[in-house]
Design a protein that fits this description.
Blueprint (H helix, E strand, L loop, with lengths): L3 H10 L14 E3 L6 H12 L6 E5 L16 E6 L2 H11 L5 E4 L14 E7 L6 H7 E12 L5 H8 L12 H10 L3 E14 L2 H10 L13 H14 L2 E13 L3
Parallel strand pairs: 2-3, 2-5, 3-4, 5-6
Antiparallel strand pairs: 1-7, 6-8, 7-8
Helix pairs in contact: 1-7
Length: 258
C-alpha cells in the first residue's frame, strides 16, 4: 500500500491540462446525469452537418474532448478557451472536425464574434456565462445548450479542506439564476433538468489531482498550503473508506426568438 508521501508525490505530478478524466479510473468515481450530454450534443451538431452555412460555437471547450466526440459537425465550428495549455490540446483534439480554436483572456470577456453568427452555442461546465453575449452571437431561432455545475457541487470536499462555507443567498450556480439571466437576455428556456449524484475518492492522490484540475473547488489550492488537511483526509480514507461527496449538475437549453 502506498504511503501518504508517495500518494502526494504522485498527485502532484499527474498532468492536468484538458478535461480528460481517464486517469481517475479505479481511483475516483462520479455518477453521471441520466440525460447524456455528449450524446445530446452529438445529435445537435450532426443535425447541422448538412445545413449550408450552419455554424456552431463551443464555449470554454477545455481540451475539446467532449466536442471531439461528436460524429459530425457543422460547416463552421469554432471553440473558445482561456487556459493556454488547453488551447494547444483543443486544437489537436478538434483538428478532425476542422474547428478553429480561439484563445481568450477571460471567460467573461466579450465574445470576439459578430452579431447573429451561430446557429448553436454550447458549453460543458462553463466557469461563467455571458448570457447577453450568447444572445448577441446567436442567429434568430438559434439555440444555447449546456451542462453546468450546480450550486454546492462537491461541497463536502470544499468544506473538509477549507472549513464551513458561509451561506450564499445571492446569484450563484442555482439554475434559477441561469433561467433569470437567460430570460433577461431575451432567450426562452425550453429545457431544464437537474441531477445530484454520488462521488467517491479512493485515495488522497485522486483528491490532489482533482483539486489541481478543478480549481474552483478549493480556490488557491496547493499541496503545501493544505498538507495538514490532506494528511487528515488520507488517514480518514485509510480508516473509513472512500471520501464521499455530491456532484450537482443541471442541463439548460435556451432559444433565441426567430
Amino acid at each position: 500500500m502506498a504511503t501518504f508521501e508517495e500518494l502526494i508525490a504522485e498527485g502532484e505530478t499527474v498532468p492536468v491540462e484538458g478535461w480528460d478524466f481517464s486517469w481517475f479510473d479505479g481511483r475516483a468515481s462520479e455518477e453521471r446525469p441520466p440525460w447524456g450530454y455528449a450524446r445530446l450534443l452529438g445529435e445537435r451538431m450532426a443535425a447541422l452537418a448538412t445545413v449550408p452555412g450552419a455554424a456552431a460555437l463551443d464555449l470554454q471547450t477545455g481540451g475539446g474532448e467532449v466536442t471531439a466526440s461528436i460524429p459530425a459537425g457543422p460547416p463552421v465550428l469554432v471553440a473558445t478557451e482561456t487556459w493556454p495549455p488547453n488551447v494547444a490540446v483543443a486544437r489537436r483534439n478538434l483538428a478532425r472536425l476542422g474547428a478553429e480554436v480561439v484563445a481568450m483572456d477571460d471567460e467573461l470577456d466579450d465574445l470576439p464574434f459578430g452579431n447573429e453568427t451561430f446557429d448553436l452555442v454550447v458549453s460543458r461546465h462553463p466557469v461563467g456565462v455571458r448570457w447577453d453575449e450568447i444572445a448577441r452571437v446567436l442567429k434568430p431561432g438559434g439555440t444555447y445548450f449546456s451542462q453546468d455545475v450546480g450550486d454546492g457541487s462537491v461541497r463536502e470536499l470544499s468544506e473538509f479542506m477549507m472549513g464551513p462555507l458561509p451561506p450564499d443567498d445571492g446569484p450563484n450556480r442555482d439554475p434559477k439564476w441561469s433561467v433569470k439571466d437567460a430570460t433577461d437576455a431575451g432567450l426562452e428556456v425550453v429545457d431544464l433538468r437537474e441531477f445530484r449524484g454520488r462521488m467517491e475518492f479512493g485515495d488522497v492522490a485522486a483528491v490532489v489531482v482533482f483539486l489541481r484540475k478543478v480549481i474552483w473547488i478549493v480556490p488557491g489550492f496547493t499541496v503545501e498550503r493544505y498538507l495538514d488537511r490532506l494528511r487528515d483526509l488520507h488517514e480518514q480514507i485509510q480508516t473509513t473508506g472512500p471520501f464521499l461527496a455530491t456532484s450537482v449538475r443541471f442541463l439548460i437549453e435556451a432559444r433565441k426568438p426567430a
